[in-house]
Amino acid sequence: MPFRTAHLLLSLLITGSALAQIPNNWDAHPMVTDSAIIFHDDLDFYLNSYTKAEIKAMRKEVNIWRMNFDKVIRATIDDIRSYSEGERVATRTKDFTLPIARTGAPFHLAAEKGKIRAFMFGSITNPPARFQLPLWDKLQEKYDTGRVRLFMVYGRELHPGDKVSYRNYPTPRSEHEKLAYAQELGQTVNIPVLVDGLDDRVLDSYGRAPNAAYVVDADGNLVFRGTWADSRKIEYIIDTLLKWYDEGRPKKFGGL
Asked: Over the stretch 32-52, which tens digit does the pLDDT of each residue have?
């Protein structure tokens, strides 16, 4: 199945879940400090924010997900502890400048100060990232880009060369090959897809958490760290931040 067709089918499958309430597996109550609102981490390895139908669709994309899940967990226990429990995940904003895949123009994170910035890491062989991209695309339409910027950083291939869907996408051996993958993925969405280097420097600096998502507030504070880039949680966080700003950043804030 061509990538564009598969992407469209995945988008249609998850449209309904975009409107669902925030999953109850995450504590959504923010913490107000003297200078920021900080949100609880959501560093969970399990795909418990997805429905059974969505997980089934993603499992069909790759071979490894057909394995006994307990064996997968045992085989990767060190990484799960390190990244999903936050040991190796960034605790502060780390600036970067990366090219936008479609245009080649540089995108400088710090240059967007004054805006809320939410970004995920993903790739063309990362089923959860492909599930989330159309939802993030739709979410950006809700916000003024002068206040909120959503984007993706194209990082490491999750399942290079795997099964029929990804057999044409082996691990890139050059910057040119990685750029070509990112450009193909970038053609399917409107939000910018930035291209990390072949050494995955930016991905490594933030931590190799699976399909990681981060939110940086208007002042440059890293206020959320999560796995699986759930658009519903990102929307809640952005709405909460905007409401707090609009109310004059009160010390006592009831949220939404």
From this structure: 998 899 999 998 777 777 888
**Helix or strand holding residue 148 (H, E):** strand 148-154
- Identity at 45, one-letter amino acid code: F
Return d(Cα 11, Cα 27) in angstroms, integer: 27
More confident residue, 22 or 247: 247
Cβ(156)–Cβ(169) below 8 Å: no
All structural domains of the chain: 3-19+26-246 (3.40.30.10)
- For residue 193, give the amino acid letter: V
Using only the alpha carbons of the chain, give its radius of gyration.
18
CA 210 to chain centre: 9
Kindly give the interhelix angle for 3-14 and 127-142, rounded to the nearest 10 degrees: 60
Answer for the pair 158, 126: CB distance below 8 angstroms, yes or no.
yes
Q: Are 101 and 185 in contact (CB under 8 A)?
A: yes
Alpha helix stretches (DSSP H) within 143-212: 163-166, 175-186, 201-206
pTM of the model: 0.84
Give the list of residues 6+ apart from residue 94 with CB closer than 8 angstroms, or none: 202, 205, 206
Shortest CA distance to 244 belongs to which of 228, 223, 225, 229?
A: 223
Q: What is the H or E stretch that residue 3 is in?
A: helix 3-14
